[in-house]
Amino acid sequence: MVNLDGKVAIVSGSGRGIGREIALKLAAEGARVVVNDLDTDPAKETVAAIEAAGGQALACIGSVTDEDFADRFVQTAVEGFGGLDIIVNNAGYTWDSVIQKMTDEQWDAILDVHLKAPFRILRAAQPVIAAQVKKAKEAGEPIPCRKVVNISSIAGTGGNAGQANYSSAKSGVLGLTKTLAKEWGRYNVTVNAVAFGFIKTRLTEASADGSSTIDVQGRQLKVGVNPDLFSAMERTIPLGRAGAPSEAAGAVYLLCTPESDYVSGQTLVCGGGFAF
């Protein structure tokens, strides 16, 4: 028996890494998933993987920061699968500097992708969810519990040197989460956040010698963690290791299950026991 049978989910930034694992997990549990990535190939690869496993998925390509994206994302779910039950705001990246070297462009870019984009997606989803609830009430049908999971970070709960932009955005996500939990309770929607700790992804496992970069809309951004620093960070984690993307996805899944239907406005830290 699958926990999410019949549910429709949208997961931003789900072509790669943690987002891909979230999409795969939700699909494995019966949800029909709208996959998003900035690039076409990763999104289509995730869709293909879901379909190969017997699930259903659609791709919505584009940057979550585009003005028309939120409406396209939500409408892909509505038009393709007939509704919307689960929203996971996952897309993002980092662009680090100490504050005296951080530019307005760096600040705005990270706030846009981590905080403004989730706000827009949730704003676009509200009329759809409200209409679904109204229709169920008029038909005398029970109102299912819908789910929002916003992705934060321990940088948002405790701050992190060199990440004033990212930490501020991820802290803002927690405020957005608590506010929407209060606003959307009347629709029987739970709104929670997962704050990730140190998770192994292409951004953290790449070489930190400056040769590893990612392309974000024409910007070549350096990624990677020094191996010695990587080991030192792992030693501060009570479980003694960084987390796997599948484990990060598991934390998100917990807040999408029927067992969490009375949990809302909370932040689940997925960090192997690490806390600031």
Overview of the molecule:
- Helix 4 packs parallel to helix 6.
- The protein is about 45% helix and about 15% strand.
- It is built from 9 helices and 9 strands.
- It has a 7-stranded parallel sheet with strand order 3-2-1-4-5-6-9, with helices on both faces. The protein has a two-stranded antiparallel sheet with strand order 7-8.
- The termini are far apart.
- The model has no long low-confidence stretch (mean pLDDT about 95).
- The protein is α/β, with parallel strands linked by helices and about 280 residues long.
- Helix 1 links the parallel strand 1 and strand 2.
- The radius of gyration is 18 Å and the shape is globular.
The helix count comes to 9
Mean pLDDT equals 94
Distance between the termini: 38 Å
Which structural class best describes the helix and strand composition? alpha/beta
Total number of beta strands: 9
Rg (CA only): 18 Å
Instruction: Quote the beta fraction.
Output: 15-25%
- Sheet having the most strands: 7 strands, parallel
Shape designation: globular
Low-confidence stretches: none
Order of helices and strands: EHEHEHEHEHHEHEEHHE
Strand order of the largest sheet: 3-2-1-4-5-6-9
The residue fraction in helices comes out at 40-55%
Labels describing this entry:
276 residues, alpha/beta, 7-stranded parallel beta sheet, 9 strands
Task: Give the topology.
Layout lengths: L7 E4 L5 H12 L3 E6 L2 H13 L4 E5 L7 H13 L4 E4 L14 H35 L7 E8 H5 L5 H21 L4 E8 L5 H4 L7 E4 L2 E4 L4 H9 L9 H10 L12 E4 L6
Parallel strand pairs: 1-2, 1-4, 2-3, 4-5, 5-6, 6-9
Antiparallel strand pairs: 7-8
